[in-house]
Specification:
Elements: E1 19-22, H1 27-33, H2 55-65, E2 68-69, E3 77-78, H3 81-87, H4 90-99, H5 108-120, H6 129-138, H7 146-151, E4 162-164, E5 171-173, H8 192-204, E6 210-211, E7 217-222, E8 230-237, E9 267-274, E10 279-280, E11 293-298, H9 303-319, E12 329-336, E13 341-348, E14 352-353, H10 354-360, H11 371-394, H12 410-414, E15 425-428, E16 436-439, H13 444-449, H14 482-501, H15 505-513, E17 515-516, E18 522-523, E19 527-529, E20 535-537, H16 539-550, H17 556-569, H18 580-596, H19 598-602
Parallel strand pairs: 1-7, 6-10, 7-12
Antiparallel strand pairs: 2-3, 4-5, 8-9, 9-11, 11-13, 12-13, 14-15, 15-16, 17-18, 19-20
Helix pairs in contact: 4-5, 6-8, 9-11, 11-18, 14-17, 16-17, 17-18
């Protein structure tokens, strides 16, 4: 049997085989990873009936205490799988069977067989341990029909059950068999409230088991009452832009809010821990030392927004084989309600954005030995950008997305990140190895939400795009992948400035760049438009680049990086600007030079003669 799959009701922009829609909460994966071994169960010692608390009641009390309240909805609860296994042991199951009056006339051999079938399964059938627990927890009278329920085919492979309200009778059915074979549970003997109670406990015992599949992304479709198995501690993550933004607000629209960075705007991002008994996720090399994950909750309930962002992440990740400097989505969740769904993305949790790295690593400022690590980070980010551009260009947008049809050259827009800035470059500190910078917050979903931009008056937009390329402001400018190269050049320049001058550099640099733009806004972009509407690098930017080259800690590596940034990455004419692929060639040459010659990154350009990086086109 394979995991149950179903669509979300919207046409997807990725190949259907790339994503597996899981509707059994991962029960199949959990069973495959934790298949129980059949064994003889020790018989009760004979004092069960004399005990003050009967085993079924004791079990109810223990399971009620084991419930964990769901952080995003206090009305939802779940019982972690390990806690359930520790309470509902095979010995406890047999003890309950011995204690139930309906089984007193049965032989010990019959009781042993029933307990083994419940705990371990039989004849190719899955166990019924969670089913047994839900029957015990929901209503005492249901216990008398346990064997009849099991004989009807009700076991853990049927979970989670679903309610069919089409005829107003609220019958339960088994989704895996696509039929209503649970006749005993749907008989007139049980009331609606009893069935609802049983279903409620089934859901509490089947919180998702999150499993990673190498070739298929796992998307968990959760019915009402199901919840993501996070622990009881969760912290909401805010971008530094919320507290200390260098964004210059639109004076005509003072109520606007800066957009969250890192894992994306139009969302809430929480730092969470998953119960380890509920997940099987690979170590991507980015795993938080304390086991935290980032759970991104989209504020939009539109399935298309979710589908586009997921497609952006998956196809770029597929092209970028190493994935060392690209954020990876580990799983997604869809909490379904009657009229809408809420969507979540699960990522590894970063220490913070690039600005946080700058503040936490001031001891590296001026330490020329760090240049070798910088060369590796720059190359990794460049390779990630190359993967994004090439990948999406190779995969066309779907023809039936009306919101995207009127975008000029939309294939190129699809092949770009769209919002590269320090807050969208995340800093990870793996348990082993050096810190790693990772490109995050892929722009496809955001592009969709801002698709009407061309129809909006620019004066009504917040001027938050410090790192935007000149194409955004030029009358006939078409935005393509090279806009990302420009933005990445801005970030590289700020990073080098931090390394040479310290954590105060970005703010000083920003203040020096402040000028009024064509709409009368005071902006800190890296370019300006002349009276003839020609884009040029701002004088303050050129002056700072010259000053950085003269810094006593500016190594030959940094000097050539500054040359590459100024001449090719920040070229205001996009046709003269270097593309991602030749950029990677140059970054790779610099990185190899750092590896092969310590002098290249430990001495200044004035103190030694080193080869210039090779020409590789634009």
């Amino acid at each position: 049997m394979s995991p149950k799959e179903a669509g979300t009701g919207t046409k997807r922009s990725y190949h259907p085989d790339r994503v597996r829609h899981i509707r059994d909460n991962g029960e199949y994966f959990c069973y495959e990873d934790n298949t129980p071994t059949c064994r003889h169960i020790m018989e009760p010692n004979g004092t069960t009936t004399a005990a003050k608390i009967r085993p079924a009641k004791k079990t109810r009390q223990e399971l009620e205490k084991a419930q964990v309240r769901y952080q995003f909805d206090p009305d939802k609860k779940f019982i972690p799988r390990r806690q359930y296994a520790n309470i509902m042991t095979p010995e406890r199951v047999l003890e309950i069977i011995y204690d139930l009056p309906c089984f007193h006339s049965q032989t010990p051999e019959w009781k042993q067989t029933l307990a083994q079938n419940i705990c371990f399964g039989s004849d190719g059938q899955r166990p019924a341990l969670k089913t047994f627990g839900a029957l015990i927890m929901s209503n005492l009278e249901l216990e008398h029909d346990i064997s009849e329920h099991l004989n009807s085919g009700l076991n853990d492979s049927c979970l989670p059950l679903r309610a069919d309200t089409s005829d107003g009778a609220d019958k339960l059915y088994c989704a895996c068999k696509k039929e209503n074979h649970i006749k005993t549970m749907n008989s007139d003997e049980y009331s609606l409230s009893e069935r609802e109670g049983f279903l409620r406990w089934v859901r509490r015992l089947t919180a998702p088991y999150v499993a990673y599949q190498p070739k298929q992304h796992s998307h968990y479709v959760l019915d009402p009452g199901n919840c993501i198995p996070i622990s009881d501690t969760t912290t909401r993550i805010f971008s530094p832009e919320h507290k200390n933004s260098r964004t210059k607000k639109n004076p005509d629209n003072p109520g606007d809010n800066p957009v969250k960075g890192g894992y994306g705007g139009f969302s809430e991002v929480h730092r969470v821990q998953l119960h380890d008994c509920h997940c099987r996720l690979p170590d991507t090399g980015l795993r938080h030392s304390r086991g935290f994950y980032a759970l991104k909750k989209l504020t939009s309930h539109n399935p298309l927004d979710f589908e586009l962002e997921l497609a952006s992440l998956l196809f770029s990740a597929d092209r970028n084989g190493g994935k060392r400097h690209m954020i990876q989505v580990l799983a997604t969740f869809e909490e379904r309600l009657v009229n809408q769904s809420t969507f979540y993305f699960l990522f590894d949790c970063a220490e913070g954005p690039l600005e946080y790295f700058w503040r936490q690593h001031e001891y590296l400022v001026g330490d020329m030995s760090h240049c070798r690590s910088m060369s590796e980070q720059f190359l990794g980010l460049g390779q990630t950008l190359e993967a994004i551009h090439n990948d999406r260009l190779d995969f066309p947008l779907p023809d039936d997305v009306p919101e995207l049809k009127n975008i000029p050259n939309f294939e190129n827009i699809y092949g770009r990140h769209g919002d590269i800035k320090p807050s969208n470059i995340l800093y990870f500190q793996p348990s082993q190895g050096e810190p790693r910078l990772v490109l995050a917050d892929f722009g496809l979903g955001r592009l969709h939400t801002k698709v009407s931009r061309s129809n909006q008056d620019p004066k009504l937009l917040s001027r938050t795009e410090t790192y935007r390329s000149p194409e955004f402001d030029l009358p006939d400018g078409l935005v393509g992948p090279r806009a990302d190269v420009y933005s990445l050049g801005c970030v590289f320049l700020e990073h080098i400035g931090w390394f040479l001058l310290g954590a105060d550099f970005p703010d000083k640099f920003s203040d020096d760049r402040l000028m009024k733009d064509m709409y009368g806004f005071e902006v800190d972009t890296f370019f300006m438009l002349t009276d003839r509407k020609v884009a040029v690098i701002k004088p303050a930017v050129k002056k700072w680049i010259t000053d950085l080259k003269e810094n006593k800690a500016c190594s030959w590596f940094l000097f050539q990086m500054l040359e590459l940034i100024e001449d090719q990455m920040l070229a205001c004419d996009k046709e003269s600007r270097i593309r991602a692929r030749p950029l990677v060639t140059k970054l790779k040459a610099l990185q190899r030079a750092c590896q092969s010659s310590k002098t290249f990154y430990m001495k200044t350009w004035k103190d030694c003669e080193c080869p210039v990086i090779p020409e590789s086109g634009r």
